[in-house]
Protein: Uroporphyrinogen decarboxylase (URO-D) domain-containing protein
Organism: Dethiosulfatarculus sandiegensis
Amino acid sequence: MSKENQIKYQEREKRLLDAIALKEPDRVPLVPLFAFYNCYFTGITPRQAYEEPEMALEAWRRTIKHFQPDATYSVNFTVYAPDQVLSGLDFKAMKWPGHGVPDDQSFQFVESEYMLEEEYEEFFQNRSEFFLRKMLPRLAGNLRGLAKLPPLETASLGYVWPGVLPAFTDPEVTLALETLLKMSKEQAKWAGLCAKFAQELKDMGYPSIKEQTVLAPYDLVADNLRGTSGAAQDLLLQPEKLMRTVEELAPLMSGLGIKGAKTKNNPRVFIPLHKGTDNFMSLRHFKNYYWPSLQKLILDLVEADCTPYLLVEGLYNSRLDVIKDVPPGKCIYHFEATDIYKAKEVLGDTVCIMGNMPNSLLNTGTVEQVKEETKRLIDHCGDGGGYIMSASALIDHAKTENVEAWVETTREYGKYR
């Protein structure tokens, strides 16, 4: 890292750290969270980003150099895995450009009940076996043979165990094992490229707002196991089993978050909140089933000197007082649709507020409207510090003139001194 870039990096990182600590930095930090906007800005399609990893990295590189944000956002959070890996797995839990969505559009998650309502006891009995034999075959068509694997307990047969080996010659078992080996190598290549690119951006003087991602324990169940509707039904029909699952998975999320932050040398751990919104869950259920394990995750991260960075998706207008119960000056709450002015009023002395420039305004508004909204956010949320300027969510479609006006206005109008 050159001396000049080192100075820039330290200035930007200090700007972030001051805001997180509820102090006034020199100006309001700007973290735009560009996603597929990087593709549109540089003239490639999202499909090309999935199929040609180097094109994706170049799109991110050019966009960051042009707008010079105070922190960047991981490319591999937009392109989770390249097309070769997703296609090779016959991945079922996502549609991506050219595979279920148009070439010029973003990906789409595909929810399903990957764990059935009657399978809780099987899950409790042996989570590893369940994930291996049930979850993976349901998530990826070319891993369906894992359901046919001999029980792991057969290893206890000792010297007799080789007699089990013919079971691995089943064509579907062979396909699953070969797919795992091949796709693991391909995904490792992508992970290596992303790690190298993250270091490149750091050397250019740009901190990263986050590297490691974990889920709120309830979301881990509602997103990836039971689905939204399945988890909602379980709240009413088998709440004890749902609660036990959330509690058993909570330490997994804490461990992953802490280990990932330390390994990647970035204390900010990203936690997107999906299923605890006002529209999905009553306040009573939120207090009993969603918040306790999320709060424990937050406290575990803070205790380990990590910074929980929560993307609060949807509406949290009715539960701001609940989520206030965290250590002051240690967390970022990025609001998508919540009344951010009310959030600042309730939470401003406890957490750093982030967001929520409307994505729709960046896409369809005028330059003057963008400037006015930028100033309004700074006036209300930036007062006294503790605010990071960002959009409501990841930015895909936006007018470049609007983005430029947003960036310029934040830099000029957002100065504290």
Summary: Residues 87 and 99 are 9 Å apart (CA to CA).
